[in-house]
Design a protein that fits this description.
- The protein contains 6 helices and 5 strands, in the order αββαβββαααα.
- It has a 5-stranded mixed β-sheet with strand order 2-1-5-3-4, sandwiched between helices.
- Strand 3 and strand 4 form a beta hairpin.
- Helix 3 crosses helix 6.
- The radius of gyration is 21 Å and the shape is globular.
- Keywords: 2Fe-2S, Iron, Iron-sulfur, Metal-binding, Oxidoreductase.
- One of its GO terms (molecular function) is 2 iron, 2 sulfur cluster binding.
């Protein structure tokens, strides 16, 4: 029978049901404080930080690791949190834009971006600052080329990058 195979195919679901996500206890340090939370295995770090921890400075832009708006530091290295599973951060140190300012004062990068107008709409700014922070911790006196390379994974559609580069260079000129 010609139509029997197609009839059988229509009666089967197109997709098998998704497996039930398991939860596990996640222990990590966020902005200097240790936390333990029950999280689903597939929870992305950006969603954990925004929805569980309440740190909305971490932006969700492209959901594909291409725009840099979600950049955080994991053990000091800039990482796109939109493609990083939260469970991969077990026993690690995660820093967000909220963790940079201390005692109610902006850190040197935040201050430089503010003073030099390194931001317009502000959506990309947290990711830019976190990528730059990772660079300045590794290399306190970067060249312009090194700054450009460090920020190459971060997109901005407002400023044209000149003020951003100027802000990072100004922060590098200030001792931490």
């Amino acid at each position: 029978m010609v139509g029997a195979d197609s009839l059988a195919a229509r009666e089967r679901p197109m997709h098998e049901p998704l497996p039930r996500r398991h939860k596990r206890l996640l222990r990590l340090q966020v902005n200097g404080r240790w936390r333990e939370d029950a999280v689903a295995d597939g929870l992305l770090l950006v969603d954990y930080l925004r929805d569980v921890v309440g740190l909305t400075g971490v932006k969700s832009g492209c959901d594909g690791g291409e725009c840099g708006a979600c950049t955080v530091l994991i053990d000091g290295d800039p990482v796109p949190s939109c493609i990083t599973l939260a469970v991969r951060c077990e026993d690690r140190h995660v820093e967000t834009i909220e963790g940079l300012a201390g005692n109610g004062r902006l850190n040197r990068l935040q201050q430089a971006f503010h003073e030099r107008l390194g931001t317009q709409c502000g959506f990309c700014t947290p990711g830019m600052i976190m990528a730059a922070e990772g660079l300045l911790r590794r290399n306190p006196s970067p060249t312009e080329a090194e700054i450009r390379t460090a920020l190459s994974g971060n997109l901005c559609r407002c400023t044209g990058y000149a003020k951003i580069l100027e802000s990072v260079q100004a922060a590098a000129d200030v001792a931490p």
